[in-house]
């Protein structure tokens, strides 16, 4: 299979939405209709031609429908993505644009992890070749081999952040952190060079075989994030100038903790955690990720934070592709792997979630998906993306009959996106 087989098919639809009927059914639907759209559809990989046509007819937006809502935004920024390496990288990287995103903050948990600046820069070059109009921001994996000197060098090469993983907790985290104190000299250097610390904020679970229990160590995936929050606070108190992002907040307690910290601490919120609760992943590996989705009240708190206009919260999808067979526990140790793949539908999912609480308006979506993350990361101030290089807009439409594709890629590396086969908003790019 060539790379071209993985690339989204590009269709130009100049007249589909040029409505001269003037009979829009809602006041919203006439907005932005006299536009030509560059439509990109994720293709199903190596399916036969007839299968492709069949899936296209059910998965693509229907040109005979008028959108119920149309929202135009600048391109979004996704401050937490997993793009992997090898063929998986080739499959998923071209889908960034499908999700309305033109800037991504790339996680370093490859095998082996990205722990030196040169490797990170070389990785960005590979990604850039796969999605030329996307801006890729490089990170390092917090590891004992990283020293204050590494940080000085990283700053010179344009590394934006360092990600810490608690050991053994999620995908490729065997090299992760056991204790944070040993990294205080590194954190001081990061603070001095204004490099961001990204934290996967969970404590490892109490070992299952420890049936007698350990005092004060009663930890499972349900309270792993809440148990971590004191560590976040202590790192922040120790390094008040160090910019810290608590990644993928999943609890009301995490939202409160981020709010309680100073302006140097922010939190990312994923798209899928705006939909899921415990019941969803309990019997569905495709909804299973770390941190796991929690209670309905936690989900409500995340939705409220994301749509509140508080600049401390912005989009980081934590889109994490795994082969379908690995999610189904059919590879390796018969267990499922943690991660939900949302990349091709990043902004569409947020719009749909915000719509459920009556918050899918242009300003609210733009702040959460486009603005607050860029502000926190000082994208403009530091020149992290070339100003004026990308003047495109994204156009979101509700009610176009589009469905999430069933899978992306093919064979053993096929990936099933979040909410495969379900209704989704439509997203197009406008030059
Ligand atoms: Zn992640």
UniProtKB/TrEMBL annotation:
Pathway: Pyrimidine metabolism; UMP biosynthesis via de novo pathway; (S)-dihydroorotate from bicarbonate: step 3/3
Any one of the GO CC terms: cytoplasm
Sample GO molecular function, one term: metal ion binding
GO biological process, one term: pyrimidine nucleotide biosynthetic process
Domain of life according to the entry: Eukaryota
Region spans: Disordered: 1-68
Top-level class of the enzyme under EC nomenclature: hydrolase
UniProt keyword annotations, A-Z: Hydrolase, Metal-binding, Pyrimidine biosynthesis, Zinc
Domain (Amidohydrolase-related) ranges: 140-252
EC number(s) stated in the UniProt entry for this protein: 3.5.2.3
Biased composition (Basic and acidic residues): 1-23
Pfam family, one: Amidohydro_2
Keyword Hydrolase: yes
Membrane-spanning ranges: none
InterPro entries in alphabetical order: Amidohydro-rel, DHOdimr, Dihydroorotase_CS, Metal_Hydrolase
Family: Belongs to the metallo-dependent hydrolases superfamily. DHOase family. Class II DHOase subfamily.
Name of the protein: dihydroorotase
């Amino acid at each position: 299979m060539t790379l071209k087989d993985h690339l989204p098919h590009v269709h130009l639809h100049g007249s589909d939405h040029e409505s001269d009927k003037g009979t829009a059914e809602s006041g919203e639907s006439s907005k932005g209709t006299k536009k030509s759209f560059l439509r990109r559809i994720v293709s199903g990989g190596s399916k036969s031609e007839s299968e492709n046509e069949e899936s296209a007819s059910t998965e693509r937006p229907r040109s005979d429908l008028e959108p119920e809502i149309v929202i135009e935004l600048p391109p979004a920024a996704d401050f937490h993505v997993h793009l992997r390496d090898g063929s998986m990288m080739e499959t998923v990287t071209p889908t960034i644009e499908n999700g309305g995103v033109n800037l991504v903050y790339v996680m370093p948990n490859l095998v082996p992890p990205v722990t030196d600046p040169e490797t990170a820069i070389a990785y960005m070059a590979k990604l850039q070749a796969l999605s030329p109009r996307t801006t890729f921001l490089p990170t390092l994996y917090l590891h004992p081999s990283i020293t204050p000197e590494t940080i000085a060098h990283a700053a010179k090469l344009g590394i934006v952040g360092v990600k810490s993983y608690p050991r053994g907790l999620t995908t490729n985290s065997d090299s992760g952190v056991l204790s944070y104190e040993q990294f205080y000299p590194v954190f001081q250097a990061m603070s001095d060079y204004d490099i961001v610390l990204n934290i996967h904020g969970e404590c490892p679970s109490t070992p299952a075989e420890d049936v007698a229990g350990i005092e004060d160590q009663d930890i499972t995936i349900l309270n792993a994030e809440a148990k971590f929050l004191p560590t976040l606070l202590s790192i922040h108190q120790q390094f008040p100038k160090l910019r810290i992002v608590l990644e993928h907040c999943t609890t009301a307690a995490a939202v409160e903790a981020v709010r309680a910290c100073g302006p140097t601490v922010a939190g990312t919120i994923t798209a899928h955690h705006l939909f899921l609760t415990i019941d969803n992943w309990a019997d569905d590996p495709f909804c299973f990720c770390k941190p796991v989705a929690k209670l309905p009240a936690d989900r409500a708190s995340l939705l409220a934070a994301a749509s509140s206009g508080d600049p401390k919260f912005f989009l980081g999808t934590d889109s994490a592709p795994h082969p379908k067979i690995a999610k189904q526990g059919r590879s390796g140790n018969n267990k499922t792997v943690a991660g939900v793949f949302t990349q091709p539908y990043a902004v569409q999912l947020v719009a749909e979630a915000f719509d459920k609480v009556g918050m899918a308006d242009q300003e609210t979506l733009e702040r959460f998906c486009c603005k607050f993350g860029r502000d926190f990361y000082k994208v403009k101030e530091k020149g992290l993306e070339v100003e004026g290089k990308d003047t495109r807009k994204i156009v979101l439409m509700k009610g176009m009959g589009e469905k999430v594709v069933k899978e992306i890629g093919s064979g053993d590396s096929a990936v099933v996106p979040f909410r495969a086969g379900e209704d989704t908003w439509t997203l197009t790019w406008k030059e």
